[in-house]
Amino acid sequence: MHRLQSRTPLGAAAARSDTIGTLTIAEITDVALVSVSARNDQEPALRAALATAVGLDLPEVGQSATADDLSAFWTGPSQWMCAAPYEGGEVLCRQIKHHVGASASVVDQTDAWCRFDVSGAQVFDLFERLTKAPVRSMAPGAACRTGVEHLGVYLWCQSATHWAVIGPRSSAGSLHHALMAAARSIC
Amino acid sequence: MTVAGAPLRNRLTGGLIDRDQTLNFQFDGKTFQGHAGDTLASALMANGVQLMGRSFKYHRPRGLLSAGSEEPNALVELRRDGRQEPNTRATVAELYDGLEAQSQNRWPSLRHDMMAINDRFSTFLTAGFYYKTFMWPKAFWEKLYEPIIRKAAGLGSLTGQDDPDAYDKGFLHCDLLVIGAGPAGLSAALTAGRAGAQVILADEDFRFGGRLLSETQALSDLSGADWTAQVLAELDSLPNVRTMMRTTVFGAYDHGIYGAVERNADHLVAPAAGKPRQTLWRIYSKRAVVAAGAIERPIAFENNDRPGVMLAGAVRAYANRWAATPAASVVVFANNDDAHQTARDLRAKGVAVPAVVDVRPDAPRIDGIEVLAGARIVNTRGRLGLGSVTVQLANGQTREIACGGLAMSGGWNPNLGLTCHQRGRPVWNEDIHAFVPGGNLPAGQYVAGAAAGELSTAAALRSGAAQAIAALADLGMAAAAPELPEAEDAAVAITPFWQVAGEKRAWLDFQNDVTVKDVKLAHQENFTAVEHLKRYTTLGMATDQGKTSNVGALAVMAELTGKSIAQTGTTIFRPPYTPVSMGALAGRAVGQAFHPTRLTPSHTWAEEQGAVFVEVGNWLRAQWFPKPGETHWRQSVDREVTQTRKSVGVCDVTTLGKIDVQGTDAAAFLNMIYANGFAGLPVGKVRYGVMLREDGVAYDDGTAARLAEDHFVVTTTTANAALVYQNMEFVRQCLCPEMDVQLISTTEAWAQYAVAGPNARKLLQKIVDPDYDLSNEAFPFMACGEVTVCGGCPARLFRISFSGELAYEIAVPTRYGDALMRELMDAGQAFDVRPYGTEALGVMRIEKGHAAGNELNGTTSAANLGLGRMLSSKKDYIGHVLSQRPGLAAEDGLRLVGLKPVTPVQSLPAGGHLMAAGGPVDAAHDQGYVTSAAYSPTLGTAIALGFVKRGAERMGEQLRLVNPLERQELLVEIVSSHFVDPEGEKLRA
Q1: Who among B274, B593, B815 is closest to A7 (CB)?
Q2: CA within 20 to 30 Å of B50's CA: B117, B252, B633, B732, which one?
Q3: A92, A110, A128 — which closes off a domain?
Q4: Domains in chain A, number
């Protein structure tokens, strides 16, 4: 084990969690992200490889899929983001690459993003103030790319009352501020 | 001062106010009392206050005209200090305990306004007077005339203090947006709500019901208010219906998008902590029903602007809904049957109605009230308020009737704003003598009720349901009309009548002081087109946008030109329907939240060091790191440069863009996006590259590292990180879709530090794990590879140099960036390592002659930059063809050179131009210009980079660097741009 101490996107040693009224805004640092892009004409091979190796059927536009610990959401044509518990270094990246071989380009994206999980009864009221995504009509598992306070983010519905916001890591503070301010205005 | 508990002078019985809740408020410093449910206007009226404002130009005394958002007169400054809001319409200001309002546009007081002298000079202040009167001398306009006019003519004032409140923004989605909650809107919402559609029902009022709250006729066996409450209860029980009170839909935009402002806390003294005052909603509707009602129009006659002269429907609303009357005695003046209801309702409430003056010879009778058929009002009298009206009877005789109020009605205009926001043109309806929505509505929009010209309550109810059914049918949803109550269903009985002819001024636009005479003058001077009429007279401008005045004025113009009103047409309607505060438009994006901030991985550490930060786009980068005792930034920067060149320095370069490029065609793809060749770059090597725009101009430079046969990492400048990525995606998706290449940004995934200086290798050998050989032989200049650091942390190492020193860039996953910086500082203590900021970075790159944004300025070609030989002739690439244009590749064109003052100086002006050592200083003799300048502690003088015509051939020549703005001139010598280590021995060491 190396000697470098890790910092969260918000710049602290430990992940932050805030509860405002009924809403909880939690910084998530224990999920690894890996982008998977099919090589030209290799999407069927990629789909087959992941289905065979881990039982994951890659989702269609606006959706996510899950198999055990591994999830994936659609990010673009023939392109997905995979998420799984963080196990250090580029473990997930190597695992996925091992499964997909030459059918896809795989890039570790874990530290490119910050993630805040927002949960509570008023979660729709919150996101209505932050994003034009039609959150009330998004079912569990739906995911989309949208904007929150001038930041490009992924919005991922875990359940009706639990959503993940995945935004650019360098702007974690601004994203967190936006979530907190909106939460205070409704709770 | 009102005595607490005493009955108010003009308060009637009944109404929809809560007499159990007494609210104290102030107007112009005097304390008054009203009740919950009052507006500021209704409470002032109940207290007998008639004078509420002064007019825009003539400073004439003014009172209420209307009871809604169309109000032109009763504008006040609400609240105080940072919360002061000018031009608030008293008619829509919901009363709350502690409300403070001030009248505006008067001095020193509302009753004694010195600027009322303007009224005496009205002959000179006619339409267009400022276009004619202040023409000479020309220079006086900006400094003298305009400031005086602006001071004299105006509305409310701003305090200049920051608004302390928060404003929210949000986004809503629905199948059907219903705008207006009067009979039509309620009926539409009920129809759609019961059908299961996602419905939003919005109304600007603080109580739903629209005109139903102001009328006495029953809906079956319920009052309008009770029927509204019943419908509202059902709507609120439906999970698919969202009812939004105090929400003004102010604009209809593309694709069914509507803008709306919800006033969350305007009815409170101050919003609760963290809570917004207002919320700006962007509503994405699949379909919309506009049920915005109608606005009554005045009649123009002499002195029709006297306080106490009001719209008949408004007088009825004050009496029925707010239990208030403008006076104990009110005359009615009308050309239609609807206004007769005002007379009946007032009498029922115990208000005297001395006469109904009706211009129609065949006007119907009213039991117990004298109807003067075929008569007209020719003048009014009274100081600061109405005392009597002069009536010209049908037989030509005049009669003076004493009264404190006059309720006038020229008919009703459908409220068209939202139906015309996309340049829709309304059409004239001869049955109701008003413009109604034309066939060119915004996409997905339907219009119901009075807004569509359906002026009876029953027709409004029917049309609301019908339009909702039609809108939902368009979406493939079935809906059925609800059982509607029996309601008033009178046909419109109106004879068009616009003005009473007279010699004196008769007001059309109360807010902008535009009279019939002004319209005549505009006609006389040939400003007859409605848009010209508007600009020439200011008709329909300012906060009310002519809601009560436009139709009347263009009717007068139609009479003058002999055209029909339909031929005359209306001006263009534009959003917003009513004023929207700047705070609501800004939302939460104020102060530091104006834009997002990007922090580098070493930010916390840099803050601990006391770094001075600079904004680079959204990034905050350390600019320099002052040490104790340093009083000037140059001391810090000189030290950082010197120490780096002497031993070793570290700089956070995470902000540079990083784009991961993979695929079997990755090398071919790089060959396409860079002007120079990349196909032959070996794995484990880095190459410098230049990117051109399609037009052949150089726009970005950076390096690409080949990590595997099918894997590169491209770096970009900080400023162009997003643009380069976007352009690469364009090439991948649109220009070369056959290439097997995949892209993704990894800028933020890696914390990257430049480690530069003669001791850079020694420092890194303490960081990079010993398995990796960093010797010059094993890891030479332009090598790259994956390594581990600090006992096994994965990292990437690149031997590249921007400073010209022996230098590396080391990258680790961002979460370890903070720790790596601390490790580098600890390990570097032995070498007296120093962090350096963007200033020192800039100095060193100028010393080394590396181009940056100043040189890649959007006008410079590779040839200009001295990189012409990098342009490959063996392949195609973006910008290839156009970079060959004679102008871009000219042999005698500008070339990047170094510039050194003949005598050492402390600074050189970047942006200065270069002229021959002698001769004229002008554009015709321009030889080039300075792009970057800095003080070089290494050379002990300021130095510069710049472009000089044929610069490469003119080494040693002397030129004059001129800066005419600051009258600077000094002699500089053209030198190589590589001031430091021109042979590159250091970086290869």
Answers
A1: B815
A2: B117
A3: A110
A4: 2
